[in-house]
Design goal:
By secondary structure, this protein is of the alpha+beta class. 25% of the residues lie in helices and 41% in strands. It has a domain of 64 residues: Alpha-Beta Plaits, CATH 3.30.70.100. The protein contains two helices and five strands; from the N terminus they run E-H-E-E-H-E-E. The chain starts with a strand and ends with a strand. InterPro entries: Acylphosphatase, Acylphosphatase-like_dom, Acylphosphatase-like_dom_sf, Acylphosphatase_CS.
């Protein structure tokens, strides 16, 4: 098992109103990744992923495509120390 890490992600493009948050939640749960996802007022989606390094990296890669209806134009990632988030939720 690899080290637990945290990735703070901002996704730009057509990512609101296309099931991006629900798809992110489902993908994270499938990989055993904790964290949250929410829409931002500027049209981006913000997410935090915490978990096994390999699984978190899979989620970061997943964000480049996202849900089937999304059109992702940019993904920025900042890495930091895990904050002990448990489970995965959609924030409003």
């Amino acid at each position: 098992m690899s080290e637990r890490i945290r990735a703070h992600v901002f996704v730009s493009g057509t990512v609101q109103g296309v099931y991006y948050r629900a798809s992110t939640r489902d993908a994270a749960r499938e990989r055993g990744v904790d964290g949250w996802v929410k829409n931002l007022a500027d049209g981006r989606v913000e997410a935090v992923f915490e978990g096994d390094e390999d699984a978190v990296e899979e989620m970061v890669e997943w964000c480049h495509t996202g849900s089937r209806r999304a059109d992702v134009t940019d993904v920025s990632v900042e890495y930091g120390e895990p904050a002990g988030v448990e489970s995965f939720e959609i924030r409003r």
